[in-house]
Amino acid sequence: MNKEDVKQNNLKTDAFRFIDRNKEEIAKIGDAVFYFAELGMQEFRTSEYTVNALRQAGFDVEIGISGIPPAWMATWGSGKPVIGVHCEGDALPNCSQVSGMTGEKPVIEGGAPGHEEGHNANMAVMIGGAVAVKNVMEKENIKGTIKLYFAPAEEQNIPRPYFLRDGYFDGVEAIFHPHVASDLSTTYGIRQFANISVEFIFHGKSAHSAVAPWLARDALDAITLMDVGWGLMRQHLEPSQRSHRVITNGGDQPNVIPSYTKVWWWFRDKNTDLTNAIFEKAKKIAEGAAIMTGCTYETNIISTCWPTRANQAMAEIIQRNIQMVGLPQWSEDEEALARELQKKTHVPVVGLQKEIKLLKEARQNTSCNDSGCVSWVIPTGRINLPANFPGYSPHTWAAGVPLATTIAHKGEVHGAKVLAASMLDLFMDEELLNRIKEVFRNEIGDTKYFSILPKDQKPPVDLNRNEMEKWRPMMEKFYIKEKVQWS
Ligand SMILES: [Zn+2]
């Protein structure tokens, strides 16, 4: 090991000490976000709590970026290099689950929102890791800028294309995306699918359904015909495509023929061109449905994202730091909890992660994340953190169980350490950063990112508002009130 490596290792050890000393504060962030359990675009408590933690640590925070009220960008330091971290913190509808219990039991009965994937742990890792790095940089007089981003409504794939469009990522040279998983790991290559999330709105003409239906133009019929048309079209689409919809406005009551209806579609495929092509076909089907029913239609793009990709050079750095940090030492109780959940959800009963996986190229899966757009513009490193149990299925009750237990707390600490060490590598080693950029240029080749968002598109800030307002008063008694106090 040369002198530079020794210095870098000492800095990392210093960051790890900070994280260990503050592990209860890091867990507090994860738990607070778990109990806020806010739906996308309505993460106001999550935002307020995390902004406080960052301001307390000395970060400047701009709240409401891109016109998204709970979104924020936090900055510390000055000059180059500029290293970023971004993550999500939203919960899911009807996914309330008591943490630590090995049976299905909501915190609040009747369909309340809850965390059943683990975005709460992402927030703990991003903030814990970055504050540790800031602490070391300040002490050692290391120059550079840390930029953190809270991206609301990841479950609807919304915010990051807006942040990109509005210039919030400008100047960031490399960026990390920590995300909950069941193992401490990383990967590289293309990981997920592209997506277009779009509303089709049909306008017809209302009439009394019994007295004078012949005067009407039924906007719900238009949705039905679009459904039939798309159903037949499916056979002629690439097998890789995924398209699914919900009718978010199907009319009010049967005796009034609906003049206004809305169907929300998601179109996904392996790449942006294929996704765009499906969207064009869907517009034709909608046009046909509108002609057949005498209606008109318009579209409202809610979000679009490119497939997520991860940079190989960054993955190699993250992998080395995973080896350095090692896996959490799981207790017997934690093992027993994981095994019980695995048994109940009929997946292999293997307990928690005990071996570090080898670094491998990702296999592209059909899910999407709006962080995909960022990953085609800035070299991106993905950090999977072990805050859930192997075999868990996101968005189901069992996935909510570990998320405010010591399993998640340990996963958060280890994730934060890997993040901190990897950020320090980039701050300390200009050559490494240059190599990352070069690898990125080769990976991207001729592909030039463009946004599918219309230029003047506004983010859907009212999304989930009514639902969240309904539940919030009942959820407040579970909120964690204690603020984060770094030491
Ligand atoms: Zn997610």
Can you characterise this structure?
The chain has 487 residues and is α/β, with parallel strands linked by helices. It has 2 domains: 3-192 and 307-478, Zn peptidases (Aminopeptidase), CATH 3.40.630; 195-305, Alpha-Beta Plaits (2-Layer Sandwich). It contains 14 helices and 12 strands. Helix 1 crosses helix 4 (119-140) and helix 1 runs antiparallel to helix 12 (406-428). The longest helix has 23 residues, at 406-428. Zinc ion binds next to loops.
What distinguishing features does this structure have?
single chain, 487 residues, alpha/beta, Aminopeptidase, Alpha-Beta Plaits, 2 domains, 4-stranded antiparallel β-sheet, 14 helices
The first-to-last residue Cα distance is: 31 Å
Secondary structure category: alpha/beta
CATH-assigned homologous superfamily of the largest domain: Zn peptidases
- Estimate percent helicity: 40-55%
Summed over residues and divided by their number, the pLDDT gives a mean of: 96
In the CATH hierarchy, what is the class of the largest domain? Alpha Beta
Question: In the CATH classification, which architecture of the largest domain applies?
Answer: 3-Layer(aba) Sandwich
Uncertain residue ranges = none
Provide the spatial order of strands within the biggest beta sheet. Answer: 1-2-4-3-5-12
CATH topology of the largest domain: Aminopeptidase
Count of DSSP helices? 14
Give me the strand/helix succession. HHHEEEHEHEEEHEEHEEHHHEHHHH
